[in-house]
Specification:
Elements (H helix, E strand, L loop, with lengths): L2 H16 L3 H6 L10 E5 L15 H5 L7 E4 L1 H5 L3 E4 L12 E4 L1 H7 L8 E7 L4 E5 H7 L2 E3 L1 E2 L2 E2 L9 E3 L6 H4 L3 H4 L7 E8 L1
Parallel strand pairs: 1-11
Antiparallel strand pairs: 1-2, 3-4, 4-8, 5-6, 5-11, 7-10, 8-9
Length: about 200
Amino acid sequence: MNKRRQFFLGAAALGAVNLPSAALAQNAPKAQKGPTLLTVSGLIGAGNRGALDPLLDRMMAKQKIKFDKAQAFDFAALAALPAVTIKPTLEYDSKPHTLKGPLLADVLKAGGVKMTDKTTVFLRAVDGYAAQVTAAEIAKYRFIVATHMDGQPLSLGGLGPLWAVYDADRFPDMAAKPLPARFAWCPWATYHIEVKEA
């Protein structure tokens, strides 16, 4: 066997090993630079990935999430949106911390969501904790999808890599509540958002 034929057969075999299955190709987010950190489903635009695959989307399937299409965001997509900085006092150490990330409303808009007064958003964390907020609450409290705390990226195993959160100290109705209750709508390690109409 000549060297040219050996090279061709080796390249073909390597390509066959590395090619994704049809299901993986259909469900993989398009044109992403990194892994998906946030998936938005429900009443979205065209989306950039296909339906949930119960075999490959294991955590979402275990949490009974279902969708036919979704908008997947990697870190670069979130970082490309205008960032907002807030400084809430956190329940974990009762100290103010600087949190930075895009407004939740901007993330939803980037996913093709058209917010109305009937829009309801479910924010879900990796541990399954979910919070329900309305479009009016998202706007009033200026929720962000925090990517950084005190100048450092939020870590998996800590409060990140993403945290849907707002500055509770700035709103008298929230500041009057005990610290844990202020953040009941703020699941740390947020990874999935479902958009519905009430």
